[in-house]
Amino acid sequence: MDHPNPQPRRRDPRAQSPAESSSDELAAGSEHDEAERRRASWTLQKAFTPQRPKKTSRLYSESESPDELAVDADEYWRSSRMRNHHRSPSPIRDDNSQGGSDDLAEDDVAGSDENQAGDADDWSDRSATPVAPVPPKPEHLNYKEKFVMRGHLRGVSAVQFSPDCSMIASAGADAAVRVWDTASGRLIHVFEGHLAGISTLAWAPDGVWIATGSDDKTIRFWNVNTLKAHTKVFDGHQNYVYQMAFAPKGNILVSGSYDEAVFMWDVRRAQVMRSLPAHSDPVSGIDVVHDGSLIASCALDGLIRIWDTHSGQCLRTLVMEDNPPATCVKFSPNGKYVLAWTLDGCIRMWNYVQSRVLKTFQGHVNNKYSLSGCFGTYGAENVLYNQPLCFAVSGSEDGSILFWDIVSKEILQRLDGHSGSVLCVHTGTLKGKRMVVSCGIDKTVRLWEEVDENDPGSDDDAFSDSATPTPESHSKKSSPAHDADGDDAMTDASAVPSTAATPAEDVTMT
Amino acid sequence: MNLSLVDPFVLAQEYPDTLTEKLSSGHATCLSFNHKGDYLASGRVDGTVVIFDIETNGVARKLQGHTRQIQSLSWSRDGRYLLTSSQDWKCILWDLKDGSRVRTVRFEAPVYIAELHPFNHLLFVASLFEDQPVLVDVSSTKPIKRILPSAPLRPQAPDGEELDPAVAAKQAAQDAKHSTCVTIFTAFGNHIIAGTSKGWINIIETQTCTTIHSMRLCNGVVILLRLASNGRDLLVNSSDRVIRTVLMPDLSQLGIDLEPSAIKLHVEHKFQDVVNRLSWNHVTFSSTGEFVTATTFMNPDIYVWERRHGSLVKILEGPREELGVVEWHPSRPMVVACGLETGCIYTWSIVSPQKWSALAPDFGEVEENVEYMEAEDEFDVHPAEQVHQRRLDQEDEEPDAMTLDSAEGDADGVEPFNLPVLLDIEDSDSGDDVVAVGPGTMRRRTPGTSKEGANGDSEKPAANGASKGTTRSRRR
Known about the structure:
Chain A: It is found in: Mitochondrion outer membrane. Helices cover 24% and strands 34% of the residues of chain A.
């Protein structure tokens, strides 16, 4: 198991404060006793073992600023896991001790007691830390194919969930926009009107309009409620429209084009309100931050620029030394970072304020197409992690979809199914289910849904694209998906911690 | 999100300096920003209310329901409801979600100013032309109007002493001469501040509709009262050509720390033009309350005073016409004012120059020459693989890409309301002359402008525009 370096130097300060840690040891011990008592009498509520929400909630608030304590806690987890690995060869016991014992507690109280003993061991072992345990991060995701949506006549270049995720819009080289129902995978409508292939689409935040940008140099709006096209065509670009994004209020649409300009459109009037003198090569990526104050653009000249929406001024330019063409840029959900795809096969996460690369994600193939991806969250929803668990997801030119943890940079899952390059991936949540939709040059749109990892009924052939699986048939399939991924020993270890989340969800549902 | 990137010198600038935009849709006579500052409502001579999107400078919605000039506009806290008052003796409460009318309230006289309660959009005060001001509860479809007193609070006669009937009659006659010209709510809405035609300021309890404090501020008519965003500073424009800033006690402490008898209003500054004896059309505080801004009678300038020393810091120039209503953006250094003659809305803000170093990442802007020190290993050649790997190894931070900065969440706890974006806004209203001038903007005058223009002309814009000031002076 290769973990990132345990960083012993950061552990030092903790060792220097024995007084503090000893007092915490007492506190932790007493709380643990209480936990045990309650657990014996009230085994069902295991997701809410008393010590966890209390302490972690404190942690959570602290983690808003990169607090030393919070960082230490997380690192401690990793390092303690490392230590345990060296000591005990059984990864399962180890993971149980880290809060994953809930599963057993439900079935067999006696068994859980045994685990508690092990737990207690670890408690004393761990007592040097001044913070309570945080549930371990799942090391794998378990998305499975739900629907394959066919109908496009040529490659599909853009796909996006509607703001409420009830629908999916996809568009591509056949110049048609297809709207699908997320729940059933059925085609709702086909919008036709563009004279050339569509490169980009964006749902307006109100969920009524879809904007599409095409190689016919226009942007068109389609109304999902009336199933009619907007009477006004957004005409102004001198060349192919490459990428677009809506401002969060939906009053401004930002588009980048092969004519090297970034246009800000007044959506109400269908007119350009501002043109940003942006780049010296086709503008391949556009995004608007969640509060609408910043626009990010990137171009094939390798420059990523951050713009002030209000003044239209460039505030920052980011570039790697050897200028690999940048093909897509996305703000993180909190707007602090940008994710940029470049044709050197890397996705980089930048801290744009400091003009610094924070993370480089690799493992996919990207040297030809403008791939585009997304941020997403994972981990159990009712568990407070040290900080929200976040992944970056992207397609690859070898037909797979990759998920990276943004902290560890490790690949959380690799989804196979597309038979050609996966051009666009988007994440969404419908009725509490996390989903990913992807499209590619194999003319299909695929919907993937996160499923419980220990769900006893999933099959290897979930990945065959022979027929569109119905939800019923899908749920009957068995065997964990990771086997299909060809992942190794990590799978076993990781399968357990995420079960900590699974039964908890069951409890909340019943 | 952009604060960390914007030039701090630009952020430090507190008041605008240049005329940047000109918005136009009909003949505007009054203006009001919503609390968030992304929309500007303007009331027109023809009774139409136009809501501009400040981000695009385009029209976001038009509200048609009044038949005469709009007198005042008041936004609800969440920005969803807008109260308009008009010379057609009506107040309308609009729901901006769909542009429908929530309530229409008729009065027996034209309305001067109507203002919504800061926390309850179904309660408002209105001051009426030659009539008693009213507190109107529109929570049910039948509005409940409660008349507010205009007469100042007189000191209680000593116990057991009968008031001389002659004196009482005289006082009653005097009280009858008072009429209230402007009423506003305090920050929490527990009290109403009223200004009268005799220059008195009355503080009225909202709950009981009784005057708890009165003070004579000046000899002229109180034309306008404005409260700063902190709720403690009051700005008074009166017909004696003096603008006063008044420090108010914390009225929320009434009954706890403060007795009604102990209320004292303290005049902080008097702003006036001593030489020309200019009179002021309209006044406003800046977003922070640090500056006072006023438009002047028969003069195209906007005066900006700062309050710490009471000195004039800026005269905003630009248009060649007299300006009426002036408003300050609730968070940005941005001032809007509408011209009396054309009814255009002018915008002053800060134009910051492009920092060229932002365009070239490996350049920096330095104030003076700097001796360059070459690093020891600057020109060492390392294998690209090695450099790449080392860089990857150094990426050991734990970024949090999800958690929002807590400061960004709205502090008021108000559910944010987003005005729907209407793509067919221009189709709904045929004759409109939306023209905006600005950097990089391409606006064309839509055909059918003449109809709108004719309407405006027939109503004699100059007379209408000045009416707010002139009707009041006529009443004296």
